[in-house]
């Protein structure tokens, strides 16, 4: 019967070690009571001294061998103490048969120090036979005494075995509970670590999308405007250079503001200063100025309904439009783009349609844009539909389910 390690509450001690104080008190109370009762018997002076000496030896063996063995579970001290215990009990009961009630604590200690059931059965049998032999010796070795002691020996053996099996089951169950608690705590720690890792990855993905949808696109605009201004200066023209430099400055300022808002996890700067409709129209005008593409914005719902949309929806719709325009800039070679914002029974939607070169949906792509858009929309519970074919343009529709503003 192995020791049972607890988890944190038991300071890593075996279950019976944590209750050893109670067994310690019971042992000393029974031993002192037995010694006290021996003085009321008819023991001679020599026998009384032998009795006291045996009790002292048993007490010393328990204090310095048995008790440490219970705590350490070391085999050699465990066997040594139990052999001393059985021998001492045989002597005490042989000298003073009324000491037989020490069998209670002796049986408990034998089982508490056992490593398995077979060991407990063997030592319990040795204890009962030894105590029965001591009683026979005290009674004069007669057959009548044997037959009178035999039922008591059998009952003691049965009680000892039942008691030991009960202890074994309690310890086994305690061990199983301790292992289960350890597994649960380990699983909890692993789950917490997984949640932490997932949170870190989710935050990284969010930051990547935000940077891609704001700073990266702003930098792309700055690069294109700079290249156009440089090309014009190289040709000797200066009429559009000032306008392009002003556009570069405006884009850089907006990028700086977006970077600050991103660090502070605020709403996009554009939405904090204007409605979604106004922001979309500004984006369309700037895109047209930078690329020469004809961009139009159409509303299938009233301005008041757009303004009433929850902020989270507006952010998703704006970022989706920005990403779609960025894809048009990079890949489509389009001449016209139509951005439509509408409301349906399923929620609010935005559609970006261009007449560009198109592509084959589902084909392998090294780009980040559509995946980022899809991830952002799906996080809000929405969906993204992409329809395209080579030479036939592209249609991207984002649907975000209806949300309620927090009270």
Give an overview in words.
The structure is a single chain. Helix content is 69%, strand content 9%. The chain has helices at 15-18, 20-38, 45-72, 75-95, 103-112, 117-139, 143-234, 241-264, 269-273, 276-291, 303-308, 311-332, 369-379; strands at 294-299, 336-344, 347-354, 383-388, 394-401. A hairpin with a 5-residue loop joins strand 4 (383-388) and strand 5 (394-401). Helix 5 (103-112) runs parallel beside helix 7 (143-234) and helix 10 packs parallel to helix 12. It is rod-shaped.
Distance between the termini: 62 Å
Largest sheet descriptor:
5 strands, mixed
Low-confidence stretches: 2-16
Average pLDDT metric: 80
Name the strands of the widest sheet in spatial order.
1-2-3-5-4
Task: Quote the beta fraction.
Answer: 5-15%
Work out the radius of gyration: 44 Å
Overall spatial form: rod-shaped
SSE sequence, one letter per element? HHHHHHHHHHEHHEEHEE
Oligomer: single chain
Structural class: alpha+beta
- Count of individual beta strands: 5
Indicate the percent of residues in helices: 55-70%
Number of helices: 13
Question: What would a concise description of this structure say?
Answer:
It comes from Kribbella hippodromi. With 407 residues, the chain is α+β, with helices and mostly antiparallel strands. Helix content is 69%, strand content 9%.
Explain the layout of strands and helices.
Layout: H1 15-18, H2 20-38, H3 45-72, H4 75-95, H5 103-112, H6 117-139, H7 143-234, H8 241-264, H9 269-273, H10 276-291, E1 294-299, H11 303-308, H12 311-332, E2 336-344, E3 347-354, H13 369-379, E4 383-388, E5 394-401
Parallel strand pairs: 1-2
Antiparallel strand pairs: 2-3, 3-5, 4-5
Helix pairs in contact: 2-3, 3-4, 4-5, 4-6, 5-6, 5-7, 6-7, 7-8, 7-12, 7-13, 10-12, 12-13
